[in-house]
Amino acid sequence: MRPVNLIPIDQRRGESAPLRTGPLPYVLIGALVLVLAGVTALVLTDNQISERKDEVATLKREDAAATARAQRLAAYTEFRAMSEQRIATVTSLADSRFDWERVMRELALVLPSDVWLVSLDATATPSVSIDGGGGGAQLRGAAHGPALAIEGCARGQEGVAGFVTTLKDIDGVTRVGVESSELASKTGEAGSGSGGGEDCRTRDFIAKFSIVVAFDAAPVPLTTAGGSTPVSAPEEAEAASGETEESSEESAGEG
Length: 255
Prior knowledge:
By secondary structure, the protein is α+β, with helices and mostly antiparallel strands. The chain has helices spanning 23-95, 100-110, 137-142, 156-167, 234-254, and strands at residues 115-123, 147-155, 175-183, 193-194, 197-198, 206-214. The longest helix has 73 residues, at 23-95. The N and C termini lie far apart (159 Å). Mean pLDDT is 76; it is low at 192-197 and 223-255.
């Protein structure tokens, strides 16, 4: 037969007694879990803060070391910058040098026998002024590079035209402009003073001219004496060349 326990359930003892459970144990366990999670998070956060502080301290030490090293090398950096600046200046001056000796030699070789010069001004930029310089101021201002301003006389307008053509044979010449070319009037102007100087027109068939020979393709200094920067403008050079050719044709027609 199977035994039957007739003792009420709430009065049983021992292994046969049922476990008494309720919500309180679960609440306590949950609270403990939350406390444990909070402590763990606090410890991890504190460790991260400590690591970040160590990194900041390390970076500050490295920055201080780098600053000290940069201060020690500052003198070398300044010296190198000054050296590079001087090299750039010397290079600019070397590149902007113009061989005036060659131009004068070629001018002496091509100068026709029926042309004689009264004045000749050679300038690297239009901003350079020469005391007592010759004419051609308007055309010289249109030439941004080196140029020759020539005044003289020739045997008639044909001699002036031939001299202009001859000047174009000089190496490096890009354009030749005639600012004026006039014959002596028949009212006794020949031989008289003109422009504060002696007029070379001793006969009525002699033409006095003012010519500007431009070397637009030649390199120019980066800065002029006044501190401005000349700009190479091929379009302006071509326009000025057209104007000088028209001026040459008009003066030849007047002659």
